[in-house]
Design a protein that fits this description.
Catalyzes a mechanistically unusual reaction, the ATP-dependent insertion of CO2 between the N7 and N8 nitrogen atoms of 7,8-diaminopelargonic acid (DAPA, also called 7,8-diammoniononanoate) to form a ureido ring. The chain has 208 residues and is of the alpha/beta class. It is built from eight helices and nine strands. The protein has one domain: Rossmann fold (3-Layer(aba) Sandwich). The strands form two sheets. Strands 4-2-6-1-7-8-9 form a seven-stranded parallel sheet, sandwiched between helices. Strands 3-5 form a two-stranded parallel sheet. Helix 1 packs across helix 2, helix 1 packs across helix 8 and helix 6 runs parallel beside helix 7. The mean pLDDT is 97. The chain binds adenosine-5'-triphosphate, 7,8-diamino-nonanoic acid (DNN) and magnesium ion.
């Protein structure tokens, strides 16, 4: 099986999609967001597709698209949809490009319920993916970052390291030091997230 890289975050809105675009561009990988919640502002898949320069990468359709901007299990409950994890895994197998990595973006953080029985972290385990954790600097972020790191460590999931999105801050050294996971990269704040920015950031990531 080709490599699967799961992009998680210390929470929602921390820059997972922008980071996923940079990682996808850097590896000329394919991109997949299995479960999208919240559709009014467009989907993460559309955003990533619009940010890639290389011609190889394919952005695959979601397994589930749910209207409500909420945790997948709640959005599914509201729309009377059953998220079938087995189907998600079968789809991952079907779309995985031969010889190329698949970058997979979660919804929210790792302890977000995906179904009434399973969390996002359970999907990471089932997918046998390696994880990149996206962190952002805000008051309370050290706690969110280290909780994420601890749950990954306790689950024995392989972690490639941290990508910090937004302005640099001394919290980064704390998060790296306490977690023991390395720095994969920094994606600085920009007034305009566009293809040129993503390409430039992709070249700076330490992914190998
Ligand atoms: N480096 C950056 N510079 C400027 N804006 C950014 C940067 N990174 C992310 N953003 C913006 O911040 C917002 C949240 O980022 P993003 O959509 O990547 O978060 P997310 O973690 O993927 O959220 P979700 O949990 O909804 O998937 C977006 O409007 C995005 O364009
Ligand atoms: C709608 C949002 N942008 C994300 N797609 C889903 C975030 C779920 C977060 C749930 C939670 O941690 O409370
Ligand atoms: Mg996103």
């Amino acid at each position: 099986m080709s490599e699967r890289i799961f992009i998680t975050g210390i929470g929602t809105g921390v820059g997972k999609t922008v980071t996923a675009a940079c990682v996808t561009e850097a590896l000329q990988a394919d991109y997949w967001k299995p479960v999208q919640t919240g559709l009014t502002e467009g989907t993460d898949t559309e955003v990533v597709r619009s940010l890639l320069t290389n011609k190889q990468s394919v952005c695959h359709p979601e397994a589930y698209c749910l209207q409500e901007p909420a945790s997948p299990h709640l959005a599914a409950r509201m729309e009377d949809v059953t998220i079938n994890v087995k189907q998600v895994l079968e789809m991952a197998h079907k779309i995985q490009p031969a010889g190329r990595p698949l970058v997979i973006e979660g919804a929210g953080g790792l302890m977000v319920p995906l179904t009434e029985q399973a969390f996002m972290i359970d999907l990471v385990q089932d997918l046998e993916a390696k994880v990149i954790i996206v962190a952002q600097n805000y008051l309370g972020g050290i706690n969110h970052a280290l909780l994420t790191a601890r749950v990954l460590k306790q689950s024995g999931i392989p972690v490639l390291g941290w990508i910090f999105c937004g302005n640099t801050h001394s919290n980064e050294a704390e998060i790296i030091g306490w977690s023991g996971y390395p720095l994969v990269g920094r994606i600085p704040y920009t007034p305009l997230v566009d293809k040129a920015f993503v390409k430039e950031q992709a070249e700076k990531l330490s992914l190998r």
